[in-house]
Each structure stands twice: as C-alpha cells, then as structure tokens.
Amino acid sequence: MAQEPRGPSLPRGRPRDPDIDDRVLDATLAILSEEGFAATTIVAVARRSGMNASAIYRRWPSRIELIEEAVFPGFDDVSIRPTGDLRRDVGRFIGAYERTLSSPAARAAMPGLLASYQQGASPHPAQKWLRVSARPHFRAILEAAGPGSVDSDIDPDDVFDLLLGTVLARALVPTVVRRTRSAEHIVDLVVRALRPTDGRAAAARLQ
Question: What's the pTM?
C-alpha cells in the first residue's frame, strides 16, 4: 500500500499539547481496533479525533509513525530493572512483551507494520524495531543473573530472536494463539536454553 505524503515538520520550539496528542492517539487505537490497519489513515484519525489533518502531520510525519506511537508508546513495561533472579526477570520480560503485542490494536497493526518495514518504510535505524529496541533490557537481565545461571558461550541476541519470534507467534498466529500453553512454559524453555552444562555451571560457581 502506498504511504500517505509526509506533512510539514513541527517548527522547533513549538510545545506539543498533551491533550491533543491523547485525542489523536486514542482515535488511532479506536480505529485500529474497530476497522483495522488499512482504515487507519491520517484523514480518518483527524475525523475521529476532531483534529485538523495538518495538525496531526505536524506531530507525526506519516501514519506509520502515528500508529507505532499509539500501539507501542515505548515498551515502558519491558524496561524492567533486573533483580538477579533469572527466572523471575525472564518471566516479567516475557509477560510485558506479550501484554504489549497482544492488545487488539497491536494485533490489528502488526501485519501492516511488518509489510511496511519490508518495503523500507520504517523511519527508524535498522537496529530498532517498533521505535525501540528491547535487546539491551534482555542483555541486562542475563548480565545480572547469578553465577552459573547463563552459559557464557550463548549469544544473547540469538536467544532474544527466538524469544521475540515465540511471543509474536503467540500474539498473531491463529494456530499458536489457540494453544493453551502458559507463559510459564516459555519461561521454562528460555531458562533451560540459557543454562550452562553441568561442568560449566560448576566452574562458574567456583569463580
């Protein structure tokens, strides 16, 4: 789908009105949930929120950026402080990710956003996805884990990629969504994948 033309940039120094932002973002979420990604255009959001389309363009230069901010406002829940308890921290991380990606608006937005990224429409650097990267938070969890909890030869990015794929499948793929496996099952698998072999675990505990 062709992207809507970009509007003018917001002049520097001009303060944003949080009330206007909230109205626009709420309207975006409502249209996504009720009518889907294709119907969530700047014009439709302007009509739903009672705002002028040009005012929306000054804040969000494209509908992709508007949808991203409405559905994924920063992954705040994923920004967890590690406690050193690997199982507990991985569980909190997975739970936060699933809550973010499983909302009705997120389910409606994800296929369209993924298609736009494949077409090179993402306004963000390659290392970021959905405006932010949660990889540093995952690495911090592994770094805070107690001795012998994580195999030093395991690449955290490989585990994160597996985890992200699993969470996306649980949120978006119908045959996976219908399964009744709890998040605790995923936590078990991740912790087991991270665990070093018996010899390496013993050596780590002696350090």
Answer: 0.71
